[in-house]
Amino acid sequence: MTTARRTLTSTDLAPYARTLGHALDDVTRLRGGSKKGVYRLTFRDGSTAVAYVWSPDEDLWDAGPADPRDPFSHASGLDLFTAAAHRLAAAGVRAPRLLHADASHTHLPADVALVEDLPGGTLEDLLDADEAAVAETGVLERTAALLDTLHACTAPRFGKVAVVDNGGSSYGGSCETVVAERALSDLDELPARDPRAAAAHPRLAELIRTLAARVQPRTGPPPLIHGELGPDHVRVTPEGDLALIDIEGLMYFDVEWEHVFLRQRFGRHYDALRTDDTVCLDEDRLRLYRLATHLSLVAGPLRLLDVGDFHDPEFMRGIAEHHLGLALSFPESAS
Predict the structure, then answer these.
(1) 3-class secondary-structure state, position 72
(2) Is residue 324 in some structural domain?
(3) 192-205 pLDDT, tens per residue?
(4) In the predicted model, is pLDDT for residue 6 greater than 90?
(5) Exposed, middle or buried, 154 (CB in 10 Å: 0-12/13-18/19+)?
(6) Please, which pLDDT band fits residue 218 given cuts at 50, 70 and 90?
(7) Assign residue 169 a region: left if phi > 0, alpha if psi is -120 to 50, beta otherwise?
(8) Are residues 75 and 129 in the same domain?
(9) How many CA atoms lie within 13 A of 293 on its CB side?
(10) Measuring CA to CA, which residue among 251, 240, 248, 244 is closest to residue 229?
(11) Which residues constitute the domain of residue 36?
C-alpha cells in the first residue's frame, strides 16, 4: 500500500521553469492525474504552463513496469505521452502543445514534460453547467468532427502509438483476441472479492468466449483512437477550440472500443457524436467490448482501492458496484 503523495513545491519544479526561460512564482497541483502528477506552474511574468510528472510516487495505481507491447498495459510514461503528442499533431488533432521533455532525472527522480496550459474547462464542465451553450456552440458536433479526424488516421498494425509508430508489433493476434483475454483476466480477479462474481464466474467466462467466437475477422487497418475518451478528457478553450488530454493511452485499435467508452461516458449526449464510422460499427464487437469494459471497470477500481491512496474511495467503489451489476445482468443474446 502506498503512502500519501507528496505535493511538489516551487523548489522542486523551478529548474524546469528555467528551461523555458522563466522564473517560477507558484505551483498548484491540479485535480485528476491518478497515473501522474499534474501541476500548474505560474511564472513571474504571469504566464503559465503545466508540468506532468511520472514517478512511482505520483502513480496511485502502484502498477510497476509495464510492457507497451500489451495494448492495455498501464498507459503511463513520458515515452507514451511524447509519441501520442507527436501523432496527434501530425493528424491535426489538438492536444496541449509539448514545450519540453526531460527524462534525465537530473532535478527529480522522475520523467517530466512541460506542456501548454490551455485556458477554459473541460467538456464535462460545460455539459454539466450550460445546456444552452452546448446547443448554441455546437460543441458536441465539433467533438464528432474531431473524432472523424482522429479515426481517419490508420496504421498497418494495432497497438500503442509508441510501439506501432516505431515499427513494433503488439502481443495478440487481433484486437478482439486481446480484449477477450483481458476480460477473462479481469473476471478471474473478481470471485475472491465478491460472492456474486464467484457465482457468476462460469457463466460470464463462457459468455466472453461465445461473444469472441462470433466476431468475424477484420482485415482493414486499425484507426487511431484515444481509448478512454470521456468528456473530462476534452478541454474547451474560451474560443471554443477542443483539445484532447490524458493521451498516453492513444493507440491503433478497433473503433468499437472507442464507441463503447464514448456511449458510457457521454450518456444521453452520445447520439450527437455520430461519426463517419458509426454507421459501420460491428454489433458483435460492440457486445464483446461492452462486457469487457464492464469487467474492466470493476477490476480496475478495486485494484486502485487496494493501493489505498485514492482521494475518493467511495466514488471508486460506486463505479465498481455499478459495472458489476451491469456485467451480472449482461444479456446472453443481442437485444
Answers:
(1) coil
(2) yes
(3) 999 999 999 999 99
(4) no
(5) exposed
(6) very high
(7) beta
(8) no
(9) 18
(10) 244
(11) 10-115
